[in-house]
Amino acid sequence: MPLINPSSLSSNRLNIAGLIINIIGIIFCGVGVYSFAYWVIYKKKAGKVTLYLLGINCVTILFLISQLGYLYIESIPIRIIRNWLSISASLVMGLMELEIMCVFIILTNANFTMSSNFTTYVRVGIIVAHLVADFTFLTDQIWFNSDILPNDYRTKWEQIGPGMILSITGISAGIQSSFIIYKVRKFFITRETIAKSQQQSKDATAQVQEMKSLYLRAIMLLVLEIAACSTYIISLITTAPTREMLLSNQAALRQISYGFTGVHVYLETLLLYAVANQVKNSAKANRVQSSMDSRTQNPPSDKGLVDKSTIVSTDL
Which stretches of sequence are listed as region Disordered (predicted)? Predict the structure, then answer.
């Protein structure tokens, strides 16, 4: 018996809402897959960041599709695939949170001390944390003939585990979004102070527009994170007259939470892509400025030789 009976869609609005939002999450991730695949295939920009973001959207869309099968079809292979994909989706999202935070810290020159191996240590920590959190999946859930744990416990963890792990990831993402909002607001205050004392350059104005875009995306992400986590928490405390209806309502609420997560992943990959581009543009501008300063201090000789330090690579 599946968790949600397809025949109940005509009478249970919550199930309909869960299905619609799940499909919306799939559509958003599908747009993400198309967008980044277009950059890789047609624009020939197969950089590490683009490939990474393409992979994140692919994993998430596969998880959301498998979640539909898990809820509406009683099939052990689908359950196994869904469990593995839930682990993969939560892991890549956790790693993406780290990448966004590190890149944004570089972009804003935040007062945050990082050793040369900081990112490596945190990345390893995230992987270990997911392995521990998903221990039941890795040791017992994947092989349904195993009797290491009671069947009732396995069933409960199979339904609740992915949501708990994704909620923890969502909370960390919420903290990250709040940090970005705080830093961008601080940036605006600084820019307003500078603007009052002197006229802004075109580059400074463009940077303000880019930071406004980051600010709006961070707010949207924070709203989605709150919605996804709140919906999941409601699924834990909801009640119903019968056990069958309770399981159906809980599954529908978690489906809504996962749908919000799909939209969140798409927007967050766009955020990481935008932040990474800003870092590249900022680095390029700094190299150009350094080259100009070098030419000013060391003018070319009368023989017309070109100073190699003035050559700036455009292969970013």
Answer: 286-316
